[in-house]
Amino acid sequence: MDKAKKETITLLFMDASHFVMGCDFLGYIYSMARRFIKTYSGRKRYNVLGALNFISKKVTTVTNDTYITAVEICELLKKVAVEYSGEPIFIVLDNARYQKCGIVQELANQLGIHLIYIPPYSPNLNLIERFWKYVKSGLRTKYYDKFDAFQEKIDSIVNDADKKDKANIDRLIGEKVQLFDEPLVVVGNGSVYSFINSAEQAA
Fold this sequence. Notes:
This protein has eight helices and seven strands. It is of the alpha/beta class. It is globular, with a radius of gyration of 20 Å.
């Protein structure tokens, strides 16, 4: 992060989010009585694979309505390489199989992109997760009866991340990352569990 702020590297956080129309985004209504909320009858999904620039908050994307695979990861790596040509590129991402396979790592090496894989079960270290939460909050304001309108709304929020929404995104995505200096290990003994710190475990 310090190197990115000094503009010696380009730092990106990469992950995919899957937006299911007619399931997750129904809107909210508070009432003392039961109310029925209109929703889409199908379950169409819009997948957005994004790479968030830590400094500018610009999001480079690859989208589809099927699946995210290593093919889409490679497509995004190529787009990033062109967009930030000539700059040292570092991408933080998780350990999903389609992101850590040999094809992806080989292409990254060819493009001169450094892939930084976070530890398992540590989504707090991938700051783009905060951005996806922000995007989803923007969808829970109305009913979408057409998939095209649903897609367009998502695209508009993503495309505005480094423009009119940048002040909000800057507040969400800063330098504060939740870290645990003394992780606790769960030790099981039948139905009894106890917590010990790393020092006790080493002893």
